[in-house]
Each structure stands twice: as structure tokens, then as C-alpha cells.
Amino acid sequence: MLETMQAVNEILAREKMDARYESTRVRISTHATKKPEQLLEFLHKARTLHGWVCFQSAVVSFPLSELPGDVGLPLSGELADGNKSMHFLPDGAGGWTLTDIIETDDGDDMLTDEVVYLGGDRAPGALRYRRFWRRTADGGYAPHAVRFIGFEEVE
After folding, report:
1. Under 8 Å between Cβ of 121 and 58
2. How crowded is the C-beta side of 27, counted as CA atoms within 13 Å?
3. How far apart are CA 81 and CA 98, in angstroms?
4. Rounded to an integer, what is the distance from CA 49 to the centroid of its chain?
5. How is residue 79 annotated by DSSP?
6. In terms of CB atoms within 10 Å, which of 22, 33, 57, 149 comes out highest?
7. Which element (helix H / strand E) includes 57?
């Protein structure tokens, strides 16, 4: 994998493109919850993390001192804590699917790069993500996962 990563980075440098790929190991797990109180309890405990949550009536950026009241149920969100992130989305059946993405020594080998997306007027800055690319059967790489890693101030 190291040779592939070096070759890709050389091509990107020659073409004057900014992306840089690194080798990493990633573990991804998913679980579900049907109970809004479980998700709200988790969000209350996670309020010191960086991220965002879309509620029925508001989009809220973290960290924050208390969860807002009167905004309805959480719909989706992304929270980051160092080498791990948690994303959640509605599952279409009244619950949520939660996905944990952790960069760890016991994960699967992947290439990674970082991208930055402009945040809207509710975001404290641009949104930073790490993309993970998995090797395909034909020797190439395909996008496999992405995790929120925090906010970045826009200059």
C-alpha cells in the first residue's frame, strides 16, 4: 500500500493538486436504537464534543453547555472526538442508525485524505472530514467511508 500511496501523491504533486493520501487503519461499526430518550441521553453526555445535530426545529453546533429545549427530536448529526466519530441518521422505521468510525491499530487498512466543506450560516466554521479509500479487487481504490473530524475557521 505504501508504494501506491507514494505514487498517487507524486502524481498529485506533479499535477499541482493539494490532496495528500496517508495509510491508516479504520474500524467501522453500526448499531440501531428505536428509543429517542437513548439518543438524547447520549447527546447530553456528548455535548462537549465537536460536531452538529439537526433537530426537527433547529440545527445546533457542538460543543454546548446544555441541549436546547423545544426543538423536537434529533434527526441526524455528526460528532467528533479525536480519532473517532459518531454519525447518526433516521433508519426509516422510526429509529436511528448510529455509525462509529474509529482510526485504530486493529482496523482495516485504508488510504485516507482530508477535505474541507464550507459550513452554512449556523456552522462555527468549515466542516473538516477524513475520507477513507478501500482497495478494490482490481487493484484500485474506491471511497469506503467518511468521518467528521471538526470545524475549521474560514479565513
Report:
1. no
2. 7
3. 15
4. 13
5. E
6. 149
7. none
